[in-house]
Amino acid sequence: MTEKAYGQHRSHFDALDQEGYGLQWLRLADDGQLDGPADANPEVGWLSSDVFFGGLVERFFEIAEQSPEFRWLQSAAAGVDLDGYQRLMERGARICNAHLTAIPIAEYVLRAVLDVFQDAERWRAAQTDGRWKHHNFREVWRSRWLIVGLGAIGAETAHRARAFEAHVTGVRRHPTGDEPVDSMIAPADLPGALPVADVVVLAAPATPETENLVDDAFLSGLKPGAVLVNVARGKLIDDEALLRALDGDRLAAAVLDVFNTEPLERDHPYWTHPKVVLTPHSSGGGIGRWERGAELFCDNLRRLLAGDPLANEVTSMELLTTDLPFALGQQ
Length: 331
Hints:
The chain is an alpha/beta fold. It has 13 helices and twelve strands. A seven-stranded parallel sheet has the order 8-7-6-9-10-11-12, with helices on both faces. It has a three-stranded parallel sheet with strand order 3-4-5, with helices on both faces. A two-stranded antiparallel sheet has the order 1-2. 37% of the residues are buried.
């Protein structure tokens, strides 16, 4: 782990020390130097968020791969398609990922939809102008939500929408039966669900099947006044088709946190379109993700030492096929 992560979450590691595991904590400094004996061979590692921020990813993997004893890596990222993960797994190491940003992304979605439904910009403008002006607004209560992709992000969003008494339909290729929704449909049934959806949330990974999912046909199937939210990948949307729909009367708004090109080109029409709410791929920026990451690492370390199954363990096939559902910088 890094020196920074160790310092921020010291209480968790002190608790592990008090439990008598006899652990030695090797810490990676900002300059890439490892604080520990020169012949130290780490057995486990925590690839925390600051490793990605600090440009230490390759150094981290280098240390892990040089150790003949290395057997388990806990990553703070959901996506595990970096070459280093595959190399470690080929050597027999176990890999676990994390879904630390699902909670803030779900909160972002609810906040954005509430802002659109309540036309919050009108209140802000009235306050700026010093006008005492009332207006009615739409409620989430009994609205119908369609969430495309019921992974961690989709599930957390569904929980929150249902807390507002919305009716939530989930779209998932392989349902497990325990999704927190009112109804489930297969991707093939998506066209029939669009005409009744007040809110459509895109939370599916970018795959050949989902690329340009939101095209002219998709958008023409939406009911007037629908709100589209994309917290998945920009590739899911045909930008030209969305702009055509926004210029018409079909959509109330499009809330976009991800784009086909990032950073978004400065002259892109999304910047100035009155029906677009645009954020710079930052929906996962909730600060609670750091604490959740430390808790997950320590919990899984206890599981490893006890010989119990690990949470969020991935397979070699997932390493090859998993698309990052959000930016590494958000982890």
